[in-house]
Structure formats: C-alpha cells, structure tokens
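Hey L., structure's done. Input below.
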Amino acid sequence: MTDFAAGTILGYPRIGRRRELKRAVEAHWRGDMDAATLEARAADLRRATRDRLADLGLGRTDSAIPESFSYYDQVLDVAASVGALPERFAHLRDDDGSIPLAAYFTVARGEGDAAPLEMTKWFDTNYHYLVPEIGPETRFEITSDRFARQVAEAVAQGYVTRPVLVGPVTFLALSKPTDAAARTRPLDRLDDLLPVYVELLARLRSAGADWVQLDEPALVSQSLGYTDDELAAAAARSADVLASAADRPSILVAAGYGALSGAAWQALVSSAIEGIAIDLTRGEVPVAVPGLDSKVLVAGVIDGRNVWRGDLAAAADTLSAAAGLGSARTVAGTSTSLQHVPHDLADEPELDPRLVSWLAFADQKVAQVATLAGGLLNGRESISAELDAATAALADRRSADGVRDHAVRARLAELTPTDRTRTAFEVRAAAQDAALGLPVLPTTTIGSFPQTGEIRRARAEFGRGAIDADAYEGFLREEIARVIELQEGIGLDVLVHGEAERNDMVQYFAENLDGFAVTRNGWVQSYGSRATRPSILWGDVSRPAPITVPWAAYAQSLSSAPVKGMLTGPVTILAWSFVRDDQPLSDTADQVALALRDEITDLERAGIAIVQVDEPALRELLPLRTADQGAYLDWSVGAFRLATAGAADETQIHTHLCYSEFGIVIDAIAALDADVTSIEAARSRGEVISDVAASGFDHGIGPGVYDIHSPRVPSEAEVADILRRAVSELDVRRLWVNPDCGLKTRGYDETLASLRNIVSAARAVRAQVAAGV
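Output:
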C-alpha cells in the first residue's frame, strides 16, 4: 500500500469558479468552438483546480487531490469508458469501437428520434445523473482512456492525484434494465463488468496513479431495488476481484451520503482493498471489526453537502473516535464530493460579513480538512486557535437577530390539523369543472417559458442600475403579453405568464422572503452544463409582502383563458437551498408553507382560479434508508397541505413533480391532495403511467409528453403515443397534457414547435376519445 495523505476531499466542483466549463461546452454545442479547443479549455480548468487545492493545503504527490473532473456526468463517464451505451447510439462509435466526445454528448442530449438516457437524481441531492441502460446484450469493453489521460496530465504537471470513478456496484445498481420484463437485473452483470474495471485500474496505474477512488454510495441506500445483503455481497465480490488484480493502484472505496449498513462495512473491512471512506456527518462511527488495522480510513467529518461552517471541535472529537477503531491510518476528509457546494466565499463580497463568518464553501471546507489533518499529525493543541474560532462563530450564529422570529414561531404553535385539510376532492372537482369549463385532455405548460438573452440582459441592466424600475417593469409586461399571445395562438387551454421576472424558481422567492440570503457566484452544477445558485436559508421565514400576485393578475387581465398562478412549494424551496441545520427540517418547511399559504390567499383575491405549487424535489429529499422515509413523507406532505389547504373549493391547486421514479412515493403524492399533479414521463417513455394506474390514483394527473432536458422536438405521433397509453390506463376525465417540466432552459424555436405538436396530438386523441375509438 502506497502512502496516503492525512487529509483529503472526495471531489471538487468541476464547472469552474465562473462556470467556465459550462460556457465552453455550450459554445462547442453551438458550433462556436471545436473539440480541440474545448479539450484545451477543460485541461486548463483541471490544472487550475489542482493548483488551487494544493494552495489550500492538500498534498501534491500523496494522492490527496481527487481527479474528479467531468464534462457532463460522472455516471455517463463510466458508461462511455466501459462501452455501456444503448444500441441506438452504436453508430456514433469510432471505427476502432471507441466512444468519442461527440458521442458522449449525444447520448446525454439525444439526437433525432434517438432519445437520450433517462435522467434522475443522484441519491438525495439536487444533482442529476444519466441512467445507464444495461441488459443481457450489453457488451462491456474499454471504449475510452479519458480517465488515464487525466492522470497522466496531472503527472506532467507535477502532481500524483487520485482518479475518481463511480464504482462497479453503484454503476450497475443505478442502471435500469433494457427490458423491464426480463429477469436479469443490472447488478446481475457484475462479474461481466469487473474485468473491464480491472483493465481500467491497470491503465490508471500505468498513467501514474498510486490510488484510485471508487465511489460506492449505493451501499448506503435502500432505495435502489436491492437489499443491504445483496449490495454487501456485490461489494465483497467487487473488492475481491479488483484487489486481486496484479497491476493496479491502491483502492479507496468511498461510501458517502449516509451510513454504511453493517453488512457492507463488514464486507469492505474484510476485503483486500486498502482504504474506505465513510460519511460521519450522516452516520455514526461504526463498530470495530477485524481487518481494519491494514486499512486507511477516511473519516468524512466535514459535510460536503451544505455551506455551514463546520464545528471543528466536534469534528476533531469524531476523528479521535474513528482513530480508536484501529485503522492503519485515519484521514480527515469530507463526507461526500464537494461538487454540491459553490467554490469560494471570497467570491461573495455582497453577503453580510456576519453571515459569511458562519459559512464554508468548497475552498473553506478544503481548508477545514487541512486544519484537521494538521491536528492529526501534530496534536490537537496545534490547531486550538482554529477550533476556538469555529466554536465562537457557531455561538454567534445562535444568538443573531432573525435566526429566531417570535411571531413566526407563535403562528406555528397555533396550527391545528384542520389547517392542513381541504374539502373532499370529489366536491372540489365538481366545483372546479363548473367554474373552469375545460375540455377533455386540457393542455398547459408547467410554468416557465424560455429565458432569452434579452430577458437576462434586461435583468442584468436593472441589477446594475442601467435601467430604472419603471423601464424594467415595462419590459417584463411586454414579455408577459408576448407569451400570453403565443400560447393563445398555439391553442393551449390553460396559460402561464412565463416567469420572465424570475431568475430561478427558488431564488426568486428567497429574494422576497425574510430569513434568506442569495449569492452572486454561488453556482452549483445541477446537470450537464446547467447550474443553479442555491439560496441560503439562515433564519426564520416570513413573507413581508405579496410576491407573485401583480404579475399573475396582469397576465390574467390579458386573456379570457385561465392563467395559472405559479409558486414553488416548501419542500422544493428547502431542497434547492442551503438550509439551516439548527432545527428540524419539518419546522423550517412549515414556516415556508405559511408564507405560501398567504400568497395563495392573495392570488385568489386577485382573480386567479388555478394555482400551481411546484414540488419537483419531493422525491429528491426522500431518505435513503427505509426506516427514515415515513417521517420524511409525513412532514413533507404536511407542509404542502399547510400551504394549500386554505384555498377555496373552486380554486384548482396543481403541483408538479420531477424525475420519474414515483413508485416509492406514489401514496405520498396522493396524500398531497392536489387537484392536478403533473409528472415527468417523456424521457422514460411513459413508464410512470402504469405506476399511477396501479396505485388507484384518482385525482387529476398530467404525465409529461415533452422531455425539456433535451433539444429534441417530439413529433406529434410520439406525443400521441404517450397520450393514448395514458388514456388506456387512466381516467380520461382527469388527464392533462403538458411537458415534463418548465421551458426555461429551452430555445423558442424548439419550444414553439414542440408545443404545437403537443396541442395537435391532444386534439387528435381528444377526437378519438369522443368517437369512442
């Protein structure tokens, strides 16, 4: 076993401090940058990252720096390296069978009639990965040497870094079978995949890697369709095969995002791999088991998923407890990759200095790890000043104004069960049908329309004072009027105002609610080239004034068709923010829900008959362990109902959920008691429809028919096929027709073409329904 650092991180943000990778990749997609220039820009970004991490205290030649770059997604990186791409993309391979960068991007984005890989959430985070499609026919082989080339690139720069790959067990456990009816599950192909990983390891060693990190977070999850014992057995098998390879780096298996099961912990410690990284922010120090004395143990005591300054004294205590297990070396580390947090607090000069003192972005977390590593090497007294400073910041945060608002807390204390209960759905549905008079299979969109360059320029000009509030409001009114006119021309039945005034569906509300702060450069990758700036929820939440009412009322004044009021739900606001960690999430969710409840009341007073409260993140926050899921679903459903239960019977409450995998939460979706629920279905070709039908769901439902994460325009026939499947399995009286998600990230040409196809398909199927066909 080669030497290993005293401190490390499990990954680092890869999009660049100013989203340099995003801009380069999108320029390449537009045809404005050739592949060679894109590769050079990416290499520059990787070099800058290595230098930055070394400057922050990670070693240059002891494998402390992770090589965790990705052009799009870490799961897709492995799929493209082991040949696991669907047959519909086989023609994109080079003559030698390798998978070039152009093919990699096409698999992610789709092309013509070839749909991209399905996309869903990476465990319980706001990062999306691409879902591999694995079946008995999938042939595993080395099809890319990109991992090895990046290691060699680092060596040439004077670094010995640690390449990071999604491990074989997690890669397969996260995959979907190519034939859902087949008995073969992706994880059954483990023995076929492992020889390819053995070859990958040999290539990494030849390129100069002393250690390799295999990310295996599947081992902490009970939400992937495999039992703890099955995953532990797969981990043991994987470790045995990979550790027995003759020519390889030392292996660090990283299992973040939760606590390892006892079986998985035992399997890893008993194996011949050299290192294990565990999450000690979400799990306890495990029990000592024989075999650990030959292992490096990376103790993840710095949270890789939030932005709060760590309690370094407590982290040092946990490190001491982990060291007591008797490992060959205990290493200070992060609980997960830092890809889930922004780069650097130094990039946020506009944040309140007092708030800044409570925070830590990626660079500050690296520095915390370096501090704790120094304590391991030189004794706790050597870092006493840093421990004391962190303790003082935590004390200051607890006592600061706004962290606790007595009026907000008094209102929560007065809540009763009736505050979360509406009239029976059948009564509401009759009242809404009479009030709205919509046709069978009504058409609508999820909310946002494309955020054009003109919109972004106007927002930026207003932000820097180049135009005044009147000019900016006038621009927004013109944009809303244009979007209403477009929708009427296309023939949509229920309209939206397009959300031109919103920079982000969460940040917009954060900017208008007390208890939040927003960043200027706090970008975090969401998927591919898309990034978001999560807001920072630091104090008790309240609504000082109406937020969306003026825009919704103006839009409704322009049309006789109903216009939806658009709100972001309490769970999603929490999921897509960095949320305070000093009270239960349920309490914070209820505070946000009360603010939204007041907003719905004001929308009703303004004449808005349909209000959509989006909860795309409901599935995202579902705990990975089964025992924790019931409590989460109780409070998340309760928060939604608190936000919406004050609405009149005639007010139709919609909600929207994303990311396909609804079987596990279908009962909770029903418990939301929304009048209409729209769900992602297009990328999975309508698979969720059968789950909905089997559940007996009897409220309004809108399975998505247009995958907005791809630039593809769905044909009228493609949309009609999904609609006919829905009509055959669900109550047509409660079916809606809509895209998978909002249209913010799409261009107008593809958006309008897609919506026209949707309306045409809906009319065709509507006619078939009327004719009894």
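The CA atoms of residues 690 and 729 lie 7 Å apart. The first strand starts at residue 66 and ends at 67.

-- N.
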